[in-house]
Specification:
Subunit structure: Homodimer.
Bound molecules: adenosine-5'-triphosphate
Protein name: Iron-sulfur cluster carrier protein
Number of helices: 7
Strand order of the largest sheet: 3-4-2-5-1-6-7-10
CATH superfamily: P-loop containing nucleotide triphosphate hydrolases
CATH topology: Rossmann fold
Organism: Desulfofarcimen acetoxidans (strain ATCC 49208 / DSM 771 / KCTC 5769 / VKM B-1644 / 5575) (Desulfotomaculum acetoxidans)
InterPro entries: Mrp-like_CS, Mrp/NBP35_ATP-bd, NUBPL-like, P-loop_NTPase, YlxH/NBP35
Largest sheet: 8 strands, mixed
Structural class: alpha/beta
Family: Belongs to the Mrp/NBP35 ATP-binding proteins family.
Number of strands: 10
């Protein structure tokens, strides 16, 4: 058996006996910056836009941070970044000459890196071609001083284009949380993301159906405003676990808009044990 390249550690064939890093054509995972120690990388993905990936990313990070874990968020949604706004941060990251310092969230010290923090104005558009966008994600992995982290949560952009592909091929992702909404249209697009993760051999932790109806604050009745939940069916069809069904909650969108998502109380604590292995 040929000597293994340390970059091959996360390859599914690393223990197969047929590994030869000198002839392997699989894209190599990027090593960590030697000054970082990131224990687990979890990506949040959908394929479909606007279903709540950034909200789920933030809620997972807040849950973990409240449990005492050291957490970072890599905002890989380069052209539509919303993480800084949800956490109410706008400080500009500075470099120590070797790496870029992430910005810490206000309450729970979650380390955040997002392209929006590097723009002059938060509404400046990022008009870059795919390879440059993908390069930014690699730099957020390699050139940011994340330090010691128990979890790095990666907020993926919608779609199955250059950025998700680069993230899956270059970052040592331990698992993906898939976010969908009840509409069949959303599920059709989300299936593409699930297939992509399977093709790239990145483990899927499970599915979260978000925006699944709303509970009337007056009468307590549940209204399926986007139709009946398709969560069970979608999980079964794709042979992945159903992690959670989240209703629409006006409190959540208000806290996101105020930059106070760390104050939201209905957290995703019950799914965080699944992120450990
Ligand atoms: N369960 C929910 N209840 C109420 N509002 C929600 C819920 N989930 C998400 N939202 C709101 O919906 C909007 C879109 O959510 P979010 O930005 O998380 O979606 P996204 O999938 O990351 O979007 P994009 O595809 O643009 O990256 C936000 O304003 C957010 O506050």
């Amino acid at each position: 058996m040929a000597k293994q390249n340390p970059d091959c550690q996360s390859c599914s064939e690393k223990d197969s006996g047929s590994c030869d890093s000198t002839t392997c054509s699989k894209p190599q995972k990027l090593p960590q910056n030697p000054s970082n120690n990131i224990k687990r990388v979890v990506a949040v993905m959908s394929g479909k836009g606007g279903v709540g990936k950034s909200s789920v990313t933030s809620l997972v990070a807040v849950s973990l941070a409240k449990q005492g874990y050291k957490v970072g968020i890599l905002d890989a949604d380069i052209t539509g970044p919303s993480i800084p706004k949800m956490f109410g941060i706008s400080d500009r990251p500075v470099s120590d000459g070797k790496a870029l310092m992430p910005i810490w969230s206000k309450k729970l010290n979650i380390k955040i890196m997002s392209l929006n923090l590097l723009l002059d104005n938060e509404d400046d558009p990022v008009i870059w071609r795919g390879p440059i966008l993908a390069g930014a994600v690699k730099q957020f992995w390699s050139d940011v001083a994340w330090g010691n982290l128990d979890y790095l949560i990666v907020d993926m952009p919608p779609g199955t284009g250059d950025i998700p592909l680069t993230a899956m091929q270059s970052l040592p992702i331990d698992g993906i949380i898939i976010v969908t909404s009840p509409q069949e249209l959303a599920n059709m697009v989300v299936r593409k993301a699930i297939k992509m993760a399977k093709m790239e051999e990145v483990p899927i932790i499970g599915l979260i159906e978000n925006m699944s109806g709303i509970v009337c604050p007056h009468c307590g009745d549940h209204f399926n405003i986007f139709g009946e939940s398709t969560a069970q069916k979608a999980a079964q069809q794709n042979a992945i676990p159903l992690l959670k069904v989240l209703p629409l909650d006006p409190k959540l969108s208000a806290l996101c808009d105020q930059g106070d998502i760390e104050k939201y109380e209905q957290l995703l604590d019950d799914i965080t044990p699944l992120l450990k292995n």
